[in-house]
Amino acid sequence: MFDTRHLGVPKDNIGIFLRDQAAAGDTVLDMDPGPQGDGQDLEGLEVIDTSTAQKINSPDAIALSELKSQVMQNPKALAALQGHLDSLVGQRSGYIESLPKVVKRRIKALKNYQVKHTQLEAKFYEEVHSLECKYAKLYDGLYDKRREVVNGVVEPTDSDCEWESSDDEEEEEEDEDMEEGKKEVNALAGELKGKAKVTDGEEEESPPGIPGFWMTIFKNVDILGEMVQDHDEPILSHLNDIRVKFHEGPQMGFTLEFFFTANDYFTNTVLNKSYQMKAEPDESDPFSFEGPEIIGSQGCEIDWKKNKNVTVKVIKKKQKHKGRGTTRLVTKTVQTDSFFNFFNPPKAPEEEVDGEIEEDEETEALLSADFEIGHLIRERIIPRAVLYFTGEAIEDDEYEEEAEEDDQEGEEGDEEDDNDPDFEPGKDGQKPPECNQQ
Question: What ranges does the record list as Acidic residues composition bias (predicted)?
Answer without folding.
Answer: 157-179, 393-423
